[in-house]
Design a protein that fits this description.
342 residues; globular; NPHP3-like_N; repeat; mainly alpha; DUF7708; single chain
């Protein structure tokens, strides 16, 4: 084929280039891991999979002597990847978009290979924490995403760069070049970070444009409705009353358990619960029961609890966890009482 003919060839779509990047990653895996990857890449992760995986990472690092919990640093980034794996019905009109699911599996494989190099875990977890701060989340654009092919393409382009970054890390983690790579860490990583940041900006810009368009459409619909129907003043006043009530209730208690858990989990790793017969019996119980740990202030109860949560996510199936501190329980109780006030 002539050079001119090659130039005239259209660029592959983002979806196809993502699939190609994933295939190249898979080709570089050892044979035993290829088999695992082929099985796991078809599985769509649920929302709890992020906590399960960060627990797995921290347990792996703990066995290598790392006392600090690094998994929570990756949570925001991993949440973005998990949400990307759930958008297949929009991108391809089916119930599952396999390349998006494969990105989740690919990220897991690469991160598990990286944590084997304990000397660099701190730098790497900090890198993914920084990336996570601007990682686009599907839940923030759920209403706008189906409306814009440009938004969908930018979203896919973002994860092409994520795949390339993870592929680079995975390959280097299996060679002696991993240490050498960190000698020129800044220049190489800066290029990937810049690409991801630029794509995240494009996504935000397109979201802003689509938000304006949607608002204009809603305004037109509202104008037509006002022509056809008269606003019920009493209903409107009742709506304002309800809004004020919910504002007061939210002021009593808006609890972000994910942030509290991440902050506590970063403080350290512990395996004390493993040798606690009371904990093992409680975990194995088939009936309702309560486990209580007591101790002086700053004895490490919160860190112990955060590690227990990891253990439950790794070893218990179909689990539902509610995480509250003592002051939050009081605030929630107050909120419940006020919610009964007409």
């Amino acid at each position: 084929m002539s050079k001119a003919a090659l130039v005239r060839q259209p660029q592959l779509s983002p979806e196809l280039r993502l699939a190609q990047a994933i295939s190249e990653f898979e080709a570089d895996l050892p044979e035993d891991e290829k088999t695992k990857f082929k099985v796991q890449r078809k599985q769509s992760p649920d929302s709890l999979e992020v906590m399960r995986f960060t627990a797995q990472l921290d347990r792996s690092m703990f066995t290598r002597g790392l006392r600090r919990g690094h998994g929570p640093r990756l949570t925001k980034f991993l949440e973005g990847v998990q949400q990307f794996a759930s958008i297949g019905d929009i991108l391809v009109g089916g119930s599952q978009y396999l390349p998006a699911c494969a990105v989740w599996t690919l990220v897991r494989f690469s991160l598990l290979s990286i944590v084997q190099h304990s000397d660099y875990v701190d730098k790497l977890s900090e890198l993914f924490m920084e990336i996570g701060r601007s990682t686009p989340r599907y839940q923030d654009m759920a209403l706008l995403f189906p409306r814009s092919k440009k938004l969908q393409d930018s979203f896919t382009e973002y994860y092409i760069v994520v795949v390339l970054l993870c592929h680079r890390f995975m390959k280097l983690s299996r060679t002696s070049g991993f240490k050498q790579f960190f000698n020129s860490y800044s220049d190489t990583i800066t290029r990937y970070e810049k690409q991801l940041s630029t794509l995240a900006d494009h996504i935000r810009d397109e979201m802003n444009i689509q938000s304006v368009v949607l608002a204009q459409e809603e305004t037109k619909k509202s104008s037509r409705f006002r022509v056809l129907a008269k606003v019920d003043r009493e209903a409107l006043e009742q709506m304002h009353k309800e809004q004020e009530k919910f504002r007061i209730l939210d002021a009593c208690s808006v609890y972000d358990n994910q942030t509290i858990w991440r902050q506590t989990r970063k403080l350290g790793n512990t395996a004390l619960y493993k040798d606690d017969l009371g904990y093992q019996n409680w975990k194995a119980a088939t009936h309702a029961s309560t486990l209580v740990y007591s101790g002086r202030l700053a004895a490490g109860k919160s860190v112990l609890l955060a590690n227990v949560i990891d253990d439950l996510f790794l070893n218990q199936k179909d689990i539902t966890l509610l995480i509250f501190s003592a002051d939050t329980i009081f605030q929630k109780a107050l909120k419940q009482v006020l919610s009964l006030v007409p």
